[in-house]
Amino acid sequence: MGMVDKEYLTNRIVAAEGGKAEALYDLGLLYSIGHGVEQDNVEAHKWFNLAAMRGMISAQIDRAEVADAMSMGEISEAQRKAREWMVTH
């Protein structure tokens, strides 16, 4: 992972902490493709879910796509993680 990726990732995390829907969505994308982070459908679903709750249609679509590749257990884990995130932010 190059410096640019690391910086971009840090920037997105900081923006997501501030509740920016686009940043939440971007984190979902990064985790769904494994760009700069380990590919992780649970994390991708969590971030897409949080962005979708803020009204991002694209996040709803991508969340559904990621969910297709996930087990019910993974989906409920992702939903639990999204709820935990909402409680702490």
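(the above was protein one; protein two follows)
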Amino acid sequence: MIETAALPLIDWAVLGLYFAAMLGVGWYFYCSGRSSTSAGFTKADGAMPGWVVGLSILATYVSSISFLALPGRAYAGNWNAFAFSLSLPFALWVAARWFVPYYRSTGEASAYSHLETRFGPWARVYAGVCYLLTQLARMGSVMFLMALPMHLLLGWEMQWIILFTGVSVIIYTMLGGIVAVMWSDAVQAIILMAGALLCLLLLVAGLPDGAAAGWDYAVAHDKFSLGSFGASLGESTFWVVLAYGIVINLQNFGIDQNYVQRYVAARSEVAARRSLWVGGILYLPVSAVFFLIGTALFVFYGTQPDLLPAALQGADQTDRILPYFILTQLPPGAKGLLLAAIFSAAMSTISTSLNSSATLLLTDWYQRFFRPEAGERESMRVLHGASLVWGALGTGVALAMIGVKAALDAWWTLSGTFAGGMLGLFLLGLISRRAGNPAAVTAVLAGVLVILWMTLTPGSAAWPVELQSPFHSFMTVVVGTLVILLVGLGVSRICGAPPHSSGRSRPSGL
């Protein structure tokens, strides 16, 4: 058993101030009227400062999963996962060069209207359904994984942590729209960066033999390795993680509704491009700090094993090492700041998913299929109602995960399947003018089947060993995306160009 700890009054005050500030942001922008129209609620009327958009992109990218999982991974292993961060510059360059100008030129709040133009309504619906289900998984997973260490180490009931967090996010997202989301994201980005740096500094200062000896201890245990540079695709090599990072980050910055809304919310195309670079590049040092925290935790507890309880020494406990260090080693005040940083990483992710899902439900479903003539008041009711319902569903997913470990794996499996299908289809539409419905449908079916084979067959007794996927799980989305793109290009050459292929279908130069 892990002994729970009582939080000093000053740390409660820090947490209380943080939550009050987030709700205050939502109330302020509600009163200002900047979120009183559908364009203001979903696109901020295209008037957001670039630096705010950049910090919002960073906060959207970092979740409580990153805040806890990256230090946990570095603690248990090495820096192999840092190769994911190293893929960012390429993905950012592609997004800034082609995707940002394209979305700015369309002026639409939906990232998936392009798919309807190229392949018809089914493609837009397919991508929208994939995205909405993925966001439910994302919100539920983030809230669940944020609440778990708080419950184990502080003794707080998980359902109340989840409910309080979910309700708080729903309120300020409904009140202030994307304007409140992005301004609160900017505040949360500063909090999480300050909290991570403070934690690292205090960790290094607390090493028993000093920083130099701690560095030597980590090097002796190969903690800074980026993994194998071999050619195997069945292991988590540097190249496998890098390829995975390129595909996932192209998906994030190229087709993810969360980021597309930020591109069109910026004041200008130049501001949108700069904000993309600011938010993306900032993640490189931020993730390095997370990995350094994990490595320093390894040194701290490796040289002082009596400080770590036996209950936290298992391979499945690594995500709880950082919260335990915060609660047992940090001084009053610093604990509250670090816990606020963990909450901020979670809340920025949830609020972003909530606003983008509500936007998609309005533009791609309600206005597209039910009420194309919906006015402002009706649209705002839909946005508020969708935020409330989707927030409640996301909170419900988090509550359902309590005590059901397999649920998390199932959601991540589905998310990977949906992600591969979305990105491959989108790239097919952007790259090829010849690809039409036959190519798109055939490609998506082939890609999803490959993704399911790679996801479900490894280690399954139902499949002969020779028919099981030999690839590492990180390669699933990479191979699935390539299959959709290549099959689509191949079928389009056989079927010929569709009749409407001469219309605007892709960003200039791609």
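Reviewer note on protein two: Residues 9-78+138-226+280-403 form one domain.
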